[in-house]
Design a protein that fits this description.
0% strand, 181 residues, 5 helices, single chain
Length: 181
């Protein structure tokens, strides 16, 4: 009995939560599952097709097909010819192929353009960071040069010590003139 009370309390709590706008609703369960759709699948397929259409292999296949088509319909047995001289069916097939190839190539180009745009943004960010790093390093180098200018060098210290030693010798001679050195 206690379990039923808990269930009814939970149901009441859920019904109150369903009325609130700040709490997300639970996903509805459907009897028939929807197929997951990959929006990029067609784009990837179009890129593969466009990539193939731009190869020498495709040109060889297309040339071979057209030559076979024309050859068969010109010198093949009369009863087995399916497209006589003006080759209207061949023209239709080539037009159909071109009408599908052009949009697929454009779709592939648009996807490549989007990838290039993302790469351009990344390159611009890297360039900005590199430029900032270079400016920082240039300021640091300038600060080091300025501070090095204020630091006494070894040669400067030696010359100052020699001058002091000379002054001390002169003072010692003045204080003790009779002592030979």
């Amino acid at each position: 009995m206690a379990r039923d009370d808990r269930t009814s309390i939970d149901e009441r709590r859920l019904s109150r939560a369903a009325d609130r706008l700040d709490i997300p609703r639970e996903l509805r369960r459907t009897i028939v599952r929807r197929r997951a759709y990959d929006a990029d699948a067609f784009g990837r397929l179009s890129e593969r097709i466009a990539r193939f259409l731009g190869t020498g292999q495709f040109l060889v296949y297309m040339t071979g097909t057209v030559l076979f088509w024309v050859g068969w319909n010109v010198i093949g047995p009369q009863s087995l010819r399916f497209d006589e001289y003006p080759f209207i069916f061949l023209t239709l097939a080539l037009s159909l192929q071109a009408s599908y190839a052009a949009p697929l190539i454009l779709l592939a180009q648009n996807r490549q353009e989007a990838r290039d745009r993302v790469q351009y943004e990344r390159d611009r960010d890297v360039d900005a960071r590199t430029r900032a790093d270079m400016e920082f390093l240039a300021r640091e180098m300038a600060a080091l040069r300025m501070s090095v200018g204020e630091v006494a060098t070894r040669d400067f210290l030696r010359s100052e010590l020699r001058a002091l030693l000379g002054e001390l010798d002169d003072k010692d001679r003045q204080d003790h003139p009779s002592e030979p050195r």
